[in-house]
Amino acid sequence: MAHSNTILKQMLNLIPRHQFENTVKNLSGNRYVKRFTCWNQLTTLLYAQASGKDSLREIEQGLQVQDSKRYHLGLPKIKRSTLADANQKRSYQMFEFLFYKLLKRCQGLTPKHKFKFKNPLYSLDASTIDLCLSSFNWAKFRKAKGGIKLHCQLDHSGNIPNFIRVTDAKKHDVSVAKKNFDITPDSIYCFDKAYNDFVFYRRITLAKAFFVTKAKSNLDYDVTGQHTETLKKGILSDETIKLKNPKYTKELRLIRYYDDETGDIIPFLTNNFYLAPYTITQIYKDRWQVEIFFRWIKQNLKIKTFLGTNKNAVLTQIWVAMCYFLLLTYIKYQTKFSKSLFYLHRIIKETLLQKLNLIDLLRAPLTKLLQANSVDFQFSFF
Q1: Other CB atoms within 10 Å distance of the CB of residue 186
Q2: CA atoms within 13 A on the CB side of 206
Q3: Is 371 left (phi over 0), alpha (psi -120 to 50) or beta?
Q4: Greatest Cα-to-Cα distance within the chain, rounded to the nearest angstrom
Q5: CA quadruple 367, 371, 372, 375: dihedral sign
Q6: Hey, what's the torsion of the CAs at 260, 261, 267, 268, to 10 degrees?
Q7: Cα-Cα-Cα-Cα dihedral of 299, 110, 120, 281, to 10°?
Q8: In the predicted model, what is the mean pLDDT of the chain?
Q9: Which CATH number applies to 113-292?
């Protein structure tokens, strides 16, 4: 029996629409709007993200050839100029708010991180998105280069971003972290040397949380003791140290680890004196998940080519892309979908406007899906 709702419509049903509409009202998003509402704008931009549309013309034409399904979604006839105008003028904060509402839903479903300890584990990182300076002159950060920077705190329980900040590319990673990221007691924060800052270390320690990072080669300190006597699994030393910098006066732990894959000796710095030294090294190794997150969204979401050139249009597109990422994550964990997020994204992309039951779609073998719906799945899965 054919399902009456398209895949996109079922995804839209997962969005807390009442809360979204309240935000739209508070921000006067629908003021002077006759036909193309903020909900219509969200629907259209989610369609563009999920289907991989690169331009306003592609979005317009894609919906034109699916006229009956567009009507089923409650969308009026879309004009390029109408969508462009909405992206430029309607506040991106509506979609930022929606991201955090969807995040709360996801957090109740995600599996725990892979480590045995119970502390929440987060990684901090930032990634630059290059922009053409001639089109995005507000984003200048070098003489002949433009760009913005995505700052992310990734929750290793489910590998989802639980905090995102978008700034100009000139903002230093640690300055954004010190000003914007909340520190939760008993949590472990992992970051690379871009966040090495004694004031930041102190803030984490005073919040009764922990950090794990790589030590700089020129770190100035005194050894005050040997923390672990029995060393194994590539651990060369595990020392208690005290920095010679007055901005951080408490003792720290310096672990030297031999990486047999690269032949490098890596110094790790932490204020955690409870976990085994090898566990500390593996925490830092798992920081790679935040790099994977950035690579995934850049390869699979539309956050490198934009539908508008002003700052509001760019931020609108980024926040809608992040909302789509969380919708995928929610579907994956809610349905206990065993395959990768990439696999899920590609299935949804190919069936987005088909009238299928989403749950049945995810449970169906690929061969049966091809026979039943004549869907062209000419791509590979990772």
Answers
A1: 11
A2: 10
A3: alpha
A4: 73
A5: positive
A6: -110
A7: -50
A8: 91
A9: 3.90.350.10
Cβ atoms within 10 Å of 357's Cβ, excluding its own: 16
Whole-model pTM: value is 0.92
Contact 131, 139 (CB under 8 A): yes
Pair 331, 14: CB distance under 8 Å: yes
Q: Are 166 and 173 in contact (CB under 8 A)?
A: no
According to DSSP, residue 35 is labeled S
Count Cβ atoms within 10 A of the Cβ of residue 282 and give its class: 0-12 exposed, 13-18 middle, 19 or more buried.
Answer: middle
Is the torsion defined by CA of 82, 83, 85, 86 positive or negative? positive
Look up residue 168 and give its DSSP letter.
Answer: E
Give 265-292 pLDDT, tens digit per residue: 999 999 999 999 999 999 999 999 999 9
The domain segmentation of the chain, as residue ranges, is 7-99+308-373, 113-292
N- to C-terminal Cα distance for the chain?
Answer: 31
Pairing of strands 235-243, 160-168: unpaired
C-alpha 174/C-alpha 180 separation (Å) is 10
